[in-house]
Amino acid sequence: MAGGVGDEDEGGAPPGRDDRPVASLPSPEIDRLRALAQRHTTPCGSGETVWHHWGDARADVPPLVLLHGGSGSWTHWVRNIEPLVAAGRQVWIPDLPGFGDSAVPPTGGDADALVEPMAEGLRALFGPRPVDLVGFSFGGLTAGLLLAAHPELARQLVVVGAPAMGLVAERPVRLKGWRHLPPAEQLDMHRYNLAALMLRDPVLVDGLALEVHVGNVVRDRMTRRRLARTDILARSLPSVACPVHVIYGEDDALYQGVMDGLRAAYAAATPDFRGMVLVAGSGHWVQFERPEAFLQELLAALADGAE
């Protein structure tokens, strides 16, 4: 699923099998943003990690690297790229190994297998210069593991809607399988899953959200992920030395009824914890559902972490 949990519940194909027909949707907005980007690649096993970037480099501001969620790609940030560029940031977004246009990682099939390919990619692109790192959901988990192993890679970290903090929602999310269905029925399952996990506002389920989601889940080759169900992020954060800010949607389905415990878990685990913000009127995919409010909180966090 696009948020990074429950992938087997959504009926992901076994590794190496993705041969059934799937529904597809055109997306002019994704095509427009892709055309504006510069494309780069870095090594990933026998293949490549694909990166896109927008905006001009600045000597006084580090690159801003955004990591997407599970079953996702750079398009998880489709509503945030141009506002961040307008705010003066150069934005870099990889398709994480195993997702989108990137090759699968050389070893493993979960977030821990992404650590070394991502570290290699960041060093290849930016040398010794640390970046500002933002990770959404599965990308937040990946970012935490990455900086626990390689703390020198980032000046600061913003975690957005991440799992693996050792807490479970009062009503766990159960997603519906779709790959076994004929294409005409798959879209109904995608709509259901978007509403169940990703979005609070059902009005947003169709249109761009559905285009992003469908375009991503059909390319997910990391369909047996389990670390999101553990407390591995909470156990990794004590080794993350940089400032850490946390942003969640107030109604994130992953943490229904346990937000106070979540805040306490971050505070206990993170050496330089700068606070947790809840964006009102938003579910798990907070940066898509409330992009203006999210931008305000993200820019404030980045400014604070740069001090």
UniProtKB/TrEMBL annotation:
Feature: compositional bias, Acidic residues: 1-11
Domain AB hydrolase-1: 64-296
Entry GO MF terms: catalytic activity
InterPro entries per the UniProt record, alphabetical: AB_hydrolase_1, AB_hydrolase_fold, AB_hydrolase_sf, Epox_hydrolase-like
Cellular compartments per GO CC: membrane
Region listing for Disordered, in residue ranges: 1-25
Pfam families registered for this protein in UniProt: Abhydrolase_6 (PF12697)
PANTHER family xref list: HYDROLASE, PUTATIVE (AFU_ORTHOLOGUE AFUA_2G14860)-RELATED (PTHR43798:SF33), MONOACYLGLYCEROL LIPASE (PTHR43798)
UniProt name for this protein: Pimeloyl-ACP methyl ester carboxylesterase
Species of origin: Acidovorax soli
